[in-house]
């Protein structure tokens, strides 16, 4: 049976398992630029959010292989399609708290009701209203002081926020992918690095991974909560050691010797008794 393939300019997006996905543009808390998210509104009491991330087709594990230029899809049967863009768009869970956090930071000196916080977060951001107030109520107490005077008021607590973020960092440290560990810990430290230095290296990369979802000033507070000086000192010393070893080894290959330009060969002077070539031809007399 011959398969039929059609060419399309669509994109391949792997969506999360949800019955009500909505693709929206929301302000990313770290960059403050619009980014694409999937909002799952199937449960009105707990809105789930997923960030859409583009994965390019290049594969660093297979050097020398050409990058893919298309994706072939085929469902059951004999029909399929070729997507011209080889990129794959993945969706990864994104805590609604990270989208709420910029509003909490902006109004950190104010006591605000849940209605006020929801309205302030939605102001000027289309489709932010898809994240329900019940979802706000689920996450905000983790990082806020709560005052109940008949009606609940919330105010950002630096202590609760830091404790909440550190708990997430501890979870990330326990499950660091091996390739990230090799690149950001093993390759940056000397082989005799202490367990303390290795632990600081893991915590540093874990904080930065979490910081990719946070406002920059919050990430700065998180990083300053730990003394990374021993780790930074060890990393700098190891880098200087490697640079010195590389300089001592010199270039990887032997230097090419400069070729001396050969002097042009001297033309030998013809002996005086030698006749010119034209002398062997007689002049034809005119008729």
TrEMBL record:
Keyword vocabulary terms for this entry: Nucleus
Q: Which InterPro entries match?
A: RNase_H2_suB, RNase_H2_suB_wHTH, Rnh202_N
Instruction: Kindly give the Gene3D superfamilies that the UniProt entry links to this protein.
Output: 1.10.20.120
Which residue intervals define the domain Rnh202 triple barrel in the entry? 18-94
Could you tell me which Pfam families the record lists for this protein? RNase_H2-Ydr279, Ydr279_N
- One GO CC term, this protein: ribonuclease H2 complex
Q: What is its main location?
A: nucleus
Q: Where in the cell is it found?
A: Nucleus
One Gene Ontology BP term is: RNA catabolic process
Region called Disordered, residue ranges: 237-287
Residue ranges of domain Ribonuclease H2 subunit B wHTH in the record: 99-222
Role description: Non catalytic subunit of RNase H2, an endonuclease that specifically degrades the RNA of RNA:DNA hybrids. Participates in DNA replication, possibly by mediating the removal of lagging-strand Okazaki fragment RNA primers during DNA replication. Mediates the excision of single ribonucleotides from DNA:RNA duplexes.
- UniProt protein name: Ribonuclease H2 subunit B
């Amino acid at each position: 049976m011959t398969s039929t393939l059609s060419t399309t300019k669509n994109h391949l997006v792997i969506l999360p398992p949800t019955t009500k996905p909505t693709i929206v543009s929301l302000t990313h808390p770290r960059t403050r630029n619009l980014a694409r998210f999937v909002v799952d509104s199937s449960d009105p009491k707990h809105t789930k959010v997923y960030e859409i991330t583009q994965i390019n087709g290049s594969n660093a594990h297979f050097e020398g292989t050409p990058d893919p230029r298309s994706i072939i899809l085929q469902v059951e049967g004999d029909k399929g399609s070729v997507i011209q863009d080889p990129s794959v768009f993945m969706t990864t869970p994104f805590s609604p708290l990270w989208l709420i956090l910029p509003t909490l930071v902006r109004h950190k000196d104010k006591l605000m009701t849940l209605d006020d916080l929801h309205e302030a977060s939605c102001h000027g951001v289309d489709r932010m209203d898809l994240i329900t107030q019940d979802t706000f109520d689920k996450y905000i107490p983790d990082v806020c002081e709560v005052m109940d005077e008949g009606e609940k008021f919330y105010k950002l607590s630096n202590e609760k926020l830091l404790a909440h973020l550190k708990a997430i960092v501890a979870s990330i440290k326990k499950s660091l992918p091996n390739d990230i560990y090799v690149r950001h810990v093993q390759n940056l430290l000397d082989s005799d690095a202490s367990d303390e230095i290795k632990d600081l290296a893991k915590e540093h990369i874990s904080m930065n991974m979490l910081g990719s979802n946070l406002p920059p000033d919050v990430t700065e507070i998180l990083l300053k909560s730990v003394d990374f000086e021993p780790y930074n000192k060890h990393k700098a010393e190891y880098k200087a050691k490697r640079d010195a070893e590389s300089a001592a080894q010199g270039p990887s290959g032997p230097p090419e010797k400069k070729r001396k330009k050969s002097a042009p060969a001297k033309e030998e002077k013809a002996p005086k008794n030698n006749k010119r070539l034209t002398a062997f031809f007689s002049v034809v007399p005119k008729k």
